[in-house]
Amino acid sequence: MIDLRSSEELELAPTRVGRQGINYIAIDYSLKGIVLNYESLLAALQLQYRAIFHELLLNQGPISYNCTAGQDRTGSRRR
């Protein structure tokens, strides 16, 4: 599981996934002081997206990712 939430979001709602024997990747970053738009999110989350693609290329099993709203960072917004 790759957690796309910011450090502030993780502090508000910590995950318990790592305790269940699941490989859990969370890379610290902050959204404080960032004008939130799609371009700034891509820049802020470069390391997280690289981690997703790295894990995909390893082809070692399913990958899950987590974020707070499930829209902008993960691209799963319903229309």
Helix content: 25-40%
Strand content: 5-15%
* Radius of gyration over C-alpha positions, nearest whole angstrom: 13 Å
Q: How are the strands of the biggest sheet laid out side by side?
A: 2-1-3
Q: Largest sheet, if any?
A: 3 strands, parallel
Number of E-type strands? 3
What sort of overall outline do the alpha carbons produce when their principal axes are compared? flat
SSE pattern: EHEHHE
Report, as a whole number of angstroms, the end-to-end distance.
Answer: 26 Å
User: Structural class, judged by helices and strands?
Assistant: mainly alpha
Structural notes for this entry:
The mean pLDDT is 80. The two termini are 26 Å apart. Strands 2-1-3 form a three-stranded parallel sheet, with helices on one face. Helices cover 33% and strands 8% of the residues. Helix 1 (7-12) links the parallel strand 1 and strand 2. With 79 residues, it is mainly alpha-helical.
